[in-house]
Design brief:
CATH class of the largest domain: Alpha Beta
InterPro entries: FAD-dep_OxRdtase, FAD/NAD-bd_sf
Number of strands: 18
Protein name: Sarcosine oxidase subunit beta
CATH superfamily of the largest domain: FAD/NAD(P)-binding domain
CATH topology of the largest domain: FAD/NAD(P)-binding domain
Number of helices: 9
Organism: Lactonifactor longoviformis DSM 17459
Shape: globular
CATH architecture of the largest domain: 3-Layer(bba) Sandwich
Keywords: Oxidoreductase
GO molecular function: oxidoreductase activity
Mean pLDDT: 94
Length: 379
């Protein structure tokens, strides 16, 4: 039975785990081990999302650090990491076809403006000026000119590459069985194969599995799973660089640098999917629903061929925003889970703040509203 030690162990090799590893190493903490259960880095949601880097439409509790990432990190991230992460900051239209849609969008916009975000609702004429390829059925949209998108796989692997160069150790196919306290403090990470890792600080950023692991030291976070699906089209002539979404959330996506369109979509049946977490089969129901929604907003894509569909499990949090927090009952433990399908765009800020928390520094923005103990019984 082998035994390994580090200053910090990160459980989860997704974009948040890789980013935290990089920022720790950048701050001089190179004795870091990242344990990834799959055989490849970024195999989960980090490589299976639509790449949105948005501030608009977010819960007010997460908007400050989403804005921090966009204002201070994303514009120079490719240069910093030495990899082109294909970041575009050309804006985000969230489209509406009914007055009910516009009322919902105005509510999102007004709340965001109160926190300083440049976001407004625009009419059909302005929508067409921004993106002339949209259906005439669109009567308005919310518009955030500082939103954008990036390549999620390239971003995750760029953080991995730089962290590795700075001395971080990544171990794949490393399945964690449980956590264990020693003298009142989280110290041990017990692997399914019997190996034991030890560290002063353990960051749990393992998606839905974070719930299982935190339970082993007496902490339960109300998470549940949701199977999100996406598709990519064949290459198309260049149309636009903005990010698109809808008021009802039936699809979102963008055109990639290559020319293909990448869309995430929703059939309304995802909550009823019953598969084990290691199963990634996609459903013809969702793909067809997504295609109908996309064509309804972008008619020119009606004949575009779908090259590939894929899916992945999302760790949904009970109240729709993540848990990013130290755990007072378990000193040495930091949680980063429950990102509810919108954790990619905030990953630079989250990774930085996880590094700051591990080093007992003040976080770049106040995230006290995301504490692990904010959940209260309703009866």
């Amino acid at each position: 039975m082998s035994k390994m030690t580090a200053d910090v162990i990160i459980i989860g090799g997704g974009v948040n785990g890789c980013a935290a590893a990089y920022y720790l190493a950048k701050k001089g903490v190179c004795d870091v081990i990242v344990l990834e259960a799959d055989k490849s880095i970024g195999h989960g949601g980090s490589s299976r999302n639509g790449g949105g880097v948005r501030q608009s439409g977010r819960d007010m509790r997460e908007l400050p650090y989403a804005m921090y990432a966009v204002n201070n990190m994303w514009p120079t991230l490719s240069e910093e990491l030495g990899v082109d992460v294909e970041y575009y900051q050309r804006g985000n239209l969230r489209l509406g076809k009914t007055e009910k849609h516009l009322k919902k969008l105005e509510g999102l916009a007004s709340g965001s403006r109160a926190l300083g975000l440049d976001m407004k609702v625009v009419d059909a004429q302005t929508v067409k000026e921004i993106c002339p390829y949209l259906s005439d059925e669109v009567i308005g949209a919310s518009w955030c000119p500082t939103d954008g998108h990036a390549n999620p796989m390239l971003t995750t692997l760029a953080y991995y590459k730089r962290a590795t160069e700075l001395g971080v150790r990544f171990i794949t196919d490393a399945k964690v069985e449980k956590l264990e306290k020693q003298r009142g403090r989280l110290r041990r990470v017990i692997m399914k194969n019997g190996e034991i890792f030890e560290a002063e600080t353990v960051i749990v950023a393992a998606g839905y599995e974070s719930r299982y692991l935190s339970r082993t030291v007496g902490v339960d976070i109300p998470l549940y799973t949701y199977f999100e699906e996406a598709l990519v089209t064949e290459m198309q002539p260049h149309m636009f660089d903005i990010m698109l979404g809808t008021a009802d959330g039936d699809f979102y996506g963008h055109q990639s640098r290559h020319g293909s369109f990448v869309f995430g979509s929703d059939s309304g049946l995802e909550g009823d999917i019953d598969m084990p977490l290691d199963e990634l089969k996609t459903s013809s129901l969702t793909a067809s629903a997504g295609c109908r929604a996309i064509i309804g907003y972008i008619p020119l894509l009606a004949d575009a061929k779908v090259v590939r569909t894929w899916g992945g499990w999302i760790d949904m949090c009970h109240d729709g925003v993540p848990v990013i927090s130290k755990v007072e009952e378990v000193p040495g433990m930091i949680l980063a889970c429950g990102f509810t399908g919108h954790g990619f765009g905030t990953a630079p800020a989250v990774g930085l703040m996880l590094a700051q928390m591990a080093l007992e520094e003040e976080t770049s923005v106040d995230i006290s509203a995301l504490r692990y103990d904010r959940f209260k019984p309703v009866r």
